[in-house]
Amino acid sequence: IPQERIRNFCIIAHIDHGKSTLADRLLEFTGTISQREMKEQVLDRMDIERERGITIKAQAVRMIYKADDGLEYLLNLIDTPGHVDFNYEVSRSLAACEGALLVVDATQGIEAQTLANTYLALEHNLEIIPVINKIDLPSAHPEEVKKEIEEVIGLPADDALLISAKEGIGIKEVLEAVVKKIPAPKGSEDDPLRALIFDSLYDSYKGAIAFVRVMEGSIKPGQTIKMMSTGKTFLVTEVGIFSPDMETTDCLRAGEVGYVVAGIKNVKDTRVGDTITDAERPAQNPLPGYKKAVPMVFSGMYPADGEDYEKLKEALEKLQLNDAALYFEPETSAALGFGFRCGFLGLLHMEIIQERLEREYDINMITTAPSVVYKIKKTDGEEIMVDNPTNFPDPSKIEYIEEPFVEAQIMLPTEYVGPVMELCQDKRGIFKDMQYINEKRVILRYHMPLLEIIYDFFDQLKSRTRGYASLDYEFIGYFKSDLCKVDILVNGEIVDALSFIVHKDKAYYRARQIVEKLKEVIPRQLFEIPIQAAIGGRIIARETIKALRKNVLAKCYGGDVTRKKKLLEKQKEGKKRMRQFGKVELPQEAFMSVLKMG
Ligand code: GTP
């Protein structure tokens, strides 16, 4: 199929607006997958994705479509992740396309990620085709949604397609629009090779496989390629396409989307956003926009059972094979022993990794409250980056501290503006502006510390708006803040893994909350346990856990043995996630309690 009949496109949408369902219908309609083979949402391959209904890894699939003009077209659909944590991956997937289907739920209207993704698509000069989905639902109001698209996004929406992905209504019209409206790729096959890596996958036989969009030139087996960000070279052994499983072909040409196998041992050598060129006839410049994925959120992960340390290490190594954005290094904590400091793109990324470690690798873990990365200027002039509160220098050695800020975009019904502004204020947000989407909904923009966003912001936003708000945010830079470290002492000793960073104005309040919370979650002992919060040695809050009088086993004295055994068994279970600290046992909740504060 000649280049002028190739269409590379993606689907952008807010979570749950029906992106995967539409993708499924397109695959079905083009006969790429027979209905029998059709598992729901084939594009979401990982179990966790399916369960949580979110798309994490970008995937691609090739379809052949015979259009109304009688010609066959080659359509490459590149799937994009919908969540803010993976914005950079979204941006790379978009860069691999010429057009995008903008799916908006007819009952919901545009949401935060609709807007964020559309702006990204516009930055990449994509042709955007508005598609209003779920018109089968009685509460659908497509005319209003059209108006929103025109007024808020500024895209003409008169001929927006009205479809139901679920019922299969309007699918053919979507394919016709892709063929008619999205431009064909332009790059020349005779130019030096430039291929954009938009995703990668680790295969135990083939190594790291790069998913690419060839912009100019071509790639075939036998060719030596070079990664432009690192200069490393590899010999191509296989190229192919996704239909939707990987299928070998003899060559990938300018305009095409496919995969490259080249004996690459490590996914770190197939960095998303990097440009592949020919080692013998290299292109002059890489494709624009390459950024190394930087972890923004850090947390400590410790095996609940110290013996699992090696197992945890191996599991992290395995996960990293497929996830170049996951960072980890060994760390030791006085309270938790040997473990790892792990870095993530965001909270969701962190939760996914934790869940996979527990579920797929069967490791019980104790995780510490997440932290952001602080920039600290010391009095001796040195500037350091600190991702763990434990490593904060002594306050007397700190000239100033900077913390990462984001611009948050919140969409919500007007009646909740009051409570949400209050929440943002409370989270140290700086109001930027408010824009009306229509008489019922608004967009609020705030500049806010990332730290406050990762502490419970989303949950509170949802509860204050009864689930009607959506949020998107973007890192904007480091700014000075008046922060301090609060240490927690249990039984007179600092528990390093419980130290946290807080704005000075809120230090007392949060210290109070956390000692109260710890009082609830730490089991009583035969002696009294003081719990204190301190800033640089000065105690600012205190609670006491009263001594326990009775023995748990006393109840079953003389009673039946199995019951006693069961009780002990149960205690052992509970202990797995406990940490002995001096004479005191700390449960997992203790380490996360810092998160659940207003
Ligand atoms: P993420 O992968 O989380 O970004 O979600 P998504 O945008 O891929 O949404 P998905 O396709 O998973 O659809 C979300 C929900 O909406 C599912 O329960 C679908 O069955 C439902 N849905 C999708 N399209 C339609 C439609 O046309 N009509 C109705 N009634 N429901 C739909």
UniProtKB/TrEMBL annotation:
Membrane topology category: Peripheral membrane protein
Keyword Protein biosynthesis listed: yes
Superkingdom field: Bacteria
Record PROSITE patterns: G_TR_1 (PS00301), G_TR_2 (PS51722)
Reactions catalysed: GTP + H2O = GDP + phosphate + H(+)
Record-level GO cellular component terms: plasma membrane
Residue ranges of every copy of the Tr-type G domain listed in the record: 4-186
Cellular localisation: Cell membrane
The keyword Protein biosynthesis is assigned to this record: yes
Keywords: Cell membrane, Elongation factor, GTP-binding, Hydrolase, Membrane, Nucleotide-binding, Protein biosynthesis
CDD domains assigned: EF4_II, EF4_III, LepA, lepA_C
E.C. designation(s): 3.6.5.n1
Biological processes annotated in GO: positive regulation of translation
Gene Ontology molecular function: any one: GTPase activity
Class of this enzyme: hydrolase
SUPFAM superfamilies for this protein: EF-G C-terminal domain-like, P-loop containing nucleoside triphosphate hydrolases, Translation proteins
Family: Belongs to the GTP-binding elongation factor family. LepA subfamily.
Function: Required for accurate and efficient protein synthesis under certain stress conditions. May act as a fidelity factor of the translation reaction, by catalyzing a one-codon backward translocation of tRNAs on improperly translocated ribosomes. Back-translocation proceeds from a post-translocation (POST) complex to a pre-translocation (PRE) complex, thus giving elongation factor G a second chance to translocate the tRNAs correctly. Binds to ribosomes in a GTP-dependent manner.
Protein name: Elongation factor 4
Lineage per the UniProt record: Bacteria, Bacillati, Bacillota, Clostridia, Thermosediminibacterales
